[in-house]
Design goal:
heterodimer; A: mainly alpha; B: disordered N terminus
Chain lengths: 116, 170
Amino acid sequence: MAYVWAFVVGGAICVVGQLLFDVVKLTPAHTMSLLVVIGAVLDAVGWYDPLVDFAGAGATVPITSFGNALVHGALTELQTDGWIGVITGIFSVTSAGISAAIVFSFLAALVVRPKG
Amino acid sequence: MAVKSTGRGSRAYKPVSMSSKEYQAFAKSREPSRSVWTNCLKAFLVGGIICAIGQGVTQFFVAVFHMTSKEAGNPTVAIMILLAVILTSLGVYDKIAQWAGAGSAVPVTGFANSMCSAAIEHRSEGLVLGVGGNMFKLAGSVIVFGVVAAFVVGIIYWVFGIGAWHDITG
């Protein structure tokens, strides 16, 4: 059942993105930026965590989870370290995603030749 | 845009047979029609499949490393990014993306794809100026707006008290 909800919720978030492409005519960069901000706002009002509980990877794999993780890091360190935590904590949760993307992309650029 | 530059009395650039508006209407009528419904269905299918694969990775971390499903979220994202980089390097991801639209762009795999393809594309300009300088060309806006949004949220909760967040998140 977990797979079904991951599929449905993840697919639905992608449909939102597709509608922003096709109907609102946003560029991909605008769409992704907007989705990240939406994820951040959803976490700020406390709705993203229940969505993760419900949909699992359906909520953690779309880019909205990036906004969610940034807010989560900022707020968690705001609580432990005070106001400076807002700055120091933003990347504390997302480190895995960003570091992985940078390192793997760099290695790929060393090995792979561009096609076409 | 084009209307302004041609309409300002510069006779050399006067359009021959169509005004810019007429041309746009003509070009639109010749565009292949793309149904929003089909695009959404494709995005739903591919996005759903990517998230279902992610769910498989999450279950793997839960079963093998005894994580909670929330703790497994981060390593899942890292594995999905690795898969996306491999598929991008093989040239497969861009083929999927042409068919799937937002279905392959919205998951973090699309984020990784944009970084990886920019890095590969600009490799010939050197490691520092090419790979280093261009890797975040597309992904950068996502990070900038995500961080600014998170900062604003953080400041709001700093002003109003972090307790409010725990009240709603439980």
